[in-house]
Amino acid sequence: MRILLWDIDGTLIRSVKTGGYKDYTIPVLEEVFGTAGRLGDMHVSGMTDLQIVFEALSDAGITQDDILARAEVLVSRLTEEARKVTGNGTKFFELLPGVRDTLEALAAHPRYESALVTGNIKPMAQLKMELVGLDHFFTLPGAFGDESHNRRDLPARAAERIRKHLQLDLAPEQFIVIGDTPNDIDCAQHFGARAIAVGTGRFYSREEILACEPDALLPNLSDVDLVLRTLEKL
Ligand SMILES: [Mg+2]
Known about the structure:
This protein is α/β, with parallel strands linked by helices and 234 residues long. It folds into 2 domains: 2-16 and 92-232, Rossmann fold (3-Layer(aba) Sandwich), CATH 3.40.50; 22-85, DNA polymerase, domain 1 (Orthogonal Bundle). The protein has 10 helices and 7 strands. The protein has helices at 22-33, 49-58, 64-69, 71-85, 99-107, 122-131, 154-166, 182-191, 206-211, 224-232; strands spanning 2-6, 13-15, 93-95, 112-116, 175-179, 194-198, 216-218. The longest helix has 15 residues, at 71-85. It is globular, with a radius of gyration of 17 Å. The relative contact order is 0.18. Bound molecules: magnesium ion (MG). Magnesium ion binds at residues 7, 9-11, 46, 179-181, 201. Residues 7, 9-11, 46, 179-181, 201 line the site of magnesium ion (MG).
């Protein structure tokens, strides 16, 4: 059995406009902390949502403790604002090529089960999956960006929940992280899981991804047979 731990942004979906999340994040940071700091200028691919906020506000004299103290209101306002700004989602997020067919093929395959492991805060991850109609594919509990600002912590957290949920003693190498950034590969390796990189992220070159030594690199998920053959070897 293999458990697939899916990243969201750049792997399953992307915002139609680069940096589209800033449309709902900047007004919420301004409302909650009085400033969005330097978020407007940041590239945040592969960072968790909390890490993004820490970095954006660090020069404005707002500490990680200040942010954690207001995490609850931040998470709920971000989700509300995202729901408002993204409308029905179709103009805001697009599915990356082959994603639905790949997830359908994997759902029908007895060797695989899927969960989300993403830097997104949980309600945001759920909202995005709901908007693009993928939510039913992730039948196992995952791990999310509101649990740690360090992506490295997330696979182990998901694995613990999944072992409990399935009542199975799964080894780290039975988990396969699928993501688009060096941070996805790093968090897999830190946990002892396998890593499949996909070339659909916006910010990293093929060379930068290969330098992180993923177990495989796929250009995208459009060739379902290639995805299945690649997973079979892991
Ligand atoms: Mg990503």
